[in-house]
# Entry
Amino acid sequence: MHMTESEIRPITAAASTPVDDLEVLDEVFTVRDLNVYYADHRAVADVDLDVRERQITAFIGPSGCGKSTVLRCFNRMNDLIDIARVEGSVLYKGIDLYDPQVDPVAVRRRIGMVFQKPNPFPKSIYDNVAYGPRVGGMKGNLDDVVEQSLRSAGLWEEVKDRLGDSALGMSGGQQQRLCIARAIAVNPDVLLMDEPCSALDPIATGRIEELMKEIQSEYTIVIVTHNMQQAARVSDRTAFFTAELDEGTGQRRGKLVELDDTGTIFSNPADERTEAYVTGRFG
Amino acid sequence: MALTEPTTSSRRGIDFEALKARRGADIPGQIFYGVILAGVAVAFFMVGAVVWDVIDKSWVIVSDRFWNFLTSASSSDPAKAGVVQGIRGSLLIAGIVFLSFPIGISAAIYLEEYAEDNWASRLIQVTVRNLAGVPSIVYGLLGLAVFVQSLRGITGGSSVLAGGITIAVLVLPIVVITSAEAVRAVPASLREGAYGLGATKWEVIRTQIVPAAMPGILTGTVLAIGRALGEAAPLLVIGAVGWYTTGNNDFLDQLQGAFTALPMNITYFARDVAEIWSPHAAASSLVLLLLVFFVNLVAIVARARISKKLGR
# Structure
């Protein structure tokens, strides 16, 4: 483990759950008793997990296991869904993200997101990257921010001569790297990636994975992926989720099975369901 | 065996006949194609016939004194009568309707982006849809009661102001419905992308939703202006005249005094029993067609420019 120990960060009063049994590491997210409901349907049940700083944490599991739903709790994207309701605590460096005083807009500026399907804005490449800084109130010359962000995303050399062109004319892989550049441009602390490569070919996927490794020193990354090899290749720790049938309601709900070092999850998991999944016998 | 030589049985044992185009295999498809082609032909024929008829009947005026017809006021002399008052009335009505568009677009944005999905907002949506289907003459009665009579102090009675506001109310549901559909059609991925970068709701609406919905909103406004220019029934009810000879000396008088509009001109010319006026009815129709065509052209150019800017 390359993690260093540090003191427990202060927990706000809003956090009602005991945290003294946590591993004493730099935790970016601390999730306790997380339940997410879509109307009456409990989509995620009783999730406890933690995400560590400057690590890549992968969420894997079959469809409907709630991994994306949990990810979207980290930057309050579930707020955009009228019928979604979040219970339990999601602490970001000790602050309850669902505290009534917390502004989701401010949360999303520190915790950026890259989506499943590349979603560049119908604007120029430059304006896509400059969008975040602009809505954040940054005035004046954004050339440096745009260049730096595109360089970080490994896209600068490909697009530097056509920054004014529409982003919609780029290839899928380029578009997704543009979305990463766009997320980086607001200088976030965390990057959430929701199956960022599922719409990309293997070469473009490889480039995104390299990129994740490169920027890992500066960002905490949480990635949801359907691709187990991808989780094994890029992540430091892996959380395995599964969908289980609720006997009472007959509905399927997502549960966290285990979270451990990626090597352990793939070679020596504690739970047999994890083993069945990673060895391809299930899902 | 060369692949180019079709044989009854290839090396891999697939019968060539199985892949061969069968004669008459897709009869329903061919019939469907024929039917839609016929539909297009009928539509073109109808439009062409109307335009041809209008030009043919108005040719006496169009070939001889079209500009004079456009710029002359009404007159009892068929050789001098023109429709400048009608054009002015129609343009003023279109202007008032245009001023009402922000109200309709705002209502659409409210319904789609702000209103909670509950029985009240659903009731409003259904009501707006129903209002779009209310016959225009009913709006004429509303205009007569409210804008001509109750608000006489402001509108001056049967004026272009009363007529314009009535027509604006009439087309507002169309603007709301088409704008709401355009807003709804903005992909969720755009919203999420913008929210994900820390944009506020207002910023998402201003920088993403409205620009992306603008082509659709423009389509709705074109439909609305086209409808507004063509409506005669509500204007008849609120007391627009076919022609007038007095007043309209200053701007306020133009808004509050007696008024006419192109559909009214057409009605009055066509109603006259004297055959001598029928070219005037056709020529007025031609002017109205050209006006609607021009408005549509402006909107289509505007939409194309916005779409290009959005990179689509």
Notes: Chain B touches chain A at residues 116-117, 187, 189-200, 203, 207-208, 211-212, 310-312 (CB under 8 Å).
